[in-house]
Amino acid sequence: MPVSGIISALVVGLIIGALGRLVLPGKQNIPIWLTILVGIVAAILGTVIANALGVGDTRGIDWIEVVIQIALAAGGVSLAGGMYGRKRTH
Q1: What is the gyration radius of the CA atoms in the chain, in angstroms?
Q2: 3-state SS, residue 13
Q3: Read out DSSP for 36-56?
Q4: For 65-72, what is the mean pLDDT?
Q5: What's the confidence (pLDDT) of residue 79?
Q6: Where are the alpha helices (DSSP H) in 54-90?
Q7: 8 A C-beta contact, residue 76 and residue 44
Q8: Torsion sign over Cα 40, 43, 52, 76
Q9: How many helices (H) and strands (E) does the chain have?
Q10: Which of 34, 32, 10, 33 is nearest to 83 (CA)?
Q11: Torsion on CA atoms 34, 36, 38, 41, rounded to nearest 10
Q12: 74/13 Cα distance (integer angstroms)
């Protein structure tokens, strides 16, 4: 994978992850690297799901695909926040 592809994945992951955090109420106590990771995974899965539904390649902006990606990111951020933010007691 070229460096430009890695940078693109990081930027898209940051944007999708940030939008996922934005739609959730309250504050999520997860680091930015985890937000980016969730965003990258959500972007990839959202594209796969949109293509499977036949809405991944339309004229103009693929709004349905973007909505799917943001919904997946919101779910991922919520899940990550619940798992990462837990206090560890023994």
Answers
A1: 14
A2: helix
A3: HHHHHHHHHHHHHHHHHHT-S
A4: 91
A5: 92
A6: 63-84
A7: no
A8: positive
A9: 3, 0
A10: 34
A11: -140
A12: 12
Q: Are 38 and 77 spatial neighbours (Cβ–Cβ below 8 Å)?
A: yes
Structure tokens at 76: 């991922």
Residue 4, token pair as written in the block:
């430009």
Distance CA 28, CA 82 (A): 9
Q: What is the pLDDT of residues 17-41, one digit of tens each?
A: 999 989 988 888 889 889 889 999 9
Q: Mean per-residue pLDDT for 46-56? A: 87
Residue 26 tokens, joined: 């309250």
Residue with tokens 């959730």: 24
Rounded CA separation 56/48 (Å) = 8
Largest CA distance in the chain: 55
> Both tokens of residue 55?
């809405």
